[in-house]
Amino acid sequence: MMGLANIELPKKVKYAPRKKKADGAFKMDLVGRAYADWLALSDTERTLTVQIDCVEGLRRNSKCILSLHFVRLFFQLYILIENQDQAHVKAALDAVETYCEGAFSDVFPVMLGDRGSEFLDFAKIETGLDGARRTRMFYCDPVKPSQKGACEKNHVELRKILPKGTDFDALTFDDVSEACSHVNSYPRPGQGATPIRLASLVLPANLLESLGVRIIPPDDVIMTPKLLGLQ
């Protein structure tokens, strides 16, 4: 694997206990994981940070799309999950860990997301299949999506194919893989290569193959709902 710095991560994971709110729900203590803490990381760690988010369909939909944005590559992975909750986010990341074939901590050394409830259990996100820490999770300040602006901006490209009002419950794994392939094969102004070509140089081949992401020739890229037969 080329171009990814290795960041040493602790082998054992210890987390502060969850705090219980008056209504009986649990909240996580995010001390040490705020945006200011992320800013205090080294330049290398910030550069290698992957921004995580969810793209939603209709309000009545249970399915959503988990997005993983590699800022330095302009590359964004999309994973269809059945419910927008902590369990399904963890399951998706566990699958990604398997696809990375031992390289998850190199590919995702640091992650940055908003404070949506699906991301707040950082222990689920950070703990790998072997029980060791696989990444470090940090959070944007409340109501500050601009702090992961690259991720948000790239969603504009996805929305060209899946505009607001799209029924995400009707989407399939193959639909999202196809959308991901076309979004990342779409040339960006000022870039010497498409995001998918950059990603193919540094990300595990099995990760891309397992998620059905492939290079689309420039002349075949479709950035409208027509790609998935939605219009």
TrEMBL record:
Domain Integrase catalytic: 41-203
GO biological process entries: DNA integration
InterPro entries found in the cross-reference section: Integrase_cat-core, RNaseH-like_sf
The protein's name in its UniProt record: Integrase catalytic domain-containing protein
